[in-house]
UniProtKB/TrEMBL annotation:
Pfam families: SpoIIAA-like. This is STAS/SEC14 domain-containing protein. It comes from Christiangramia sediminicola.
Amino acid sequence: MLSTFDLAGHVVGLIVDRDLTDDIVDEIIAEVKSKLEIHDKINVFIELEKGRHITFKALWKGIIFKYSNSDHFDKIAIVTDSSWFQNAVNLSDSLLDVDVRTFDLKDRLEAIQWISL
């Protein structure tokens, strides 16, 4: 299930409690697009709960969406204990003009503070 919450008007908060598949990425994209109807630029917080995995297809779909919409993102926080996912995010987002940071699950509060500013 994909849970959403509001941190601030310009922030989309998402918690994924199952494996991150391309179907879940479609749900995330829909949430982001609905927030973009209200705000020109947003921050995105995505937390992948402990033990959850991401498929390559989902990762690729997310990367394509971020690159094609990068001018609408200010900050993106990815919270997960998956080191390969953190590394993939850091590598793929190094070319974006968006402030993207990855956080371990234990640093969730730090991520929430950072993304809310």
